[in-house]
Design brief:
Elements: E1 6-13, H1 18-27, H2 29-33, E2 38-47, E3 56-67, H3 70-74, H4 80-88, E4 91-104, E5 125-133, H5 138-153, E6 158-167, E7 171-178, H6 181-190, H7 192-204, E8 207-222
Antiparallel strand pairs: 1-3, 1-4, 2-3, 2-6, 4-8, 5-7, 5-8, 6-7
């Protein structure tokens, strides 16, 4: 039987060592390239305010990892890079996810292999979206971000959301956690504010590249 691919998202919060955390965005890549079984990774900053913001949150950083299987994913916590984050961060949240649907591209490919069946009715799910913005659409996009933020903030069934991204202003992503797939579907297809934003995305052609992925949440754990 084929082993399932595992996606991990670590959220690291810092009250001290913030400059160290910021530097990792540029220097930690080579350590990750050497890890066996790691198919894809991104070191990510996060948005301030209530999660989706033009202004960065310099206290919180994210690390996205896509592994060949669960055993290789679990072994990451023995790696020196994780040990350094564990020593310097004041809080760590670990999400382990299995993809059941994804489409689009991230840096030219889709890193998520759909190995899970659709979730059970009351099973929590995670949504990751990601986009590279067109330079000539930046102002139009960011003018609509407050409306998008209010829409998800008021959505039924969402219990966490955060803007994440590789580069400020240009390469943006989001992670959101939901009580069930039904809540996601209601938000996606019945919430007027969200439907209007999706329509604008298409008509105004904000994105040069985009990706949308749904996951079953296997683990949501606070390590610190």
């Amino acid at each position: 039987m084929k082993k399932k691919s595992i996606t991990q998202l670590y959220l690291f919060r810092f009250t001290q060592n913030r400059f160290w955390a910021f530097k990792q965005m540029g220097i930690a890549g080579p350590d990750l390239h050497e890890l066996p079984g790691l198919h894809f990774f991104k070191l990510l900053g996060t948005g301030g305010g209530n999660g989706f913001s033009l202004w960065p949150d310099f206290s919180t950083y994210a690390l996205l990892l896509v592994w060949e299987n669960e055993a290789m994913a679990n072994n990451f916590q023995n790696h020196p890079l994780f040990s350094a984050y564990n020593e310097k961060a004041q809080a760590i949240r670990k999400l382990s996810l299995e993809n059941f649907q994804s489409h689009g591209k991230w840096s030219g490919s889709n890193p998520f292999e759909s190995t899970a069946a659709s979730p059970q009715k009351e099973q929590a799910v995670a949504i990751i979206t990601r986009a590279t913005l067109r330079w000539n659409r930046l102002l139009s996009f960011w003018k609509n971000v407050p409306k998008a933020s209010r829409a998800i903030e008021n959505a039924k069934g969402v219990y966490f959301f955060k803007g994440i991204g590789e580069w400020p202003f240009i390469q943006q992503a989001t992670i959101s956690l939901w009580n069930s797939l039904d809540d996601v579907m209601h938000y996606a297809y019945k919430e007027k504010a969200h439907k209007e934003i999706v329509k604008k995305t298409r008509t105004k052609q904000w994105y040069a590249e985009d990706l949308f992925a749904r996951f079953i949440i296997l683990e949501d754990q606070k390590l610190l």
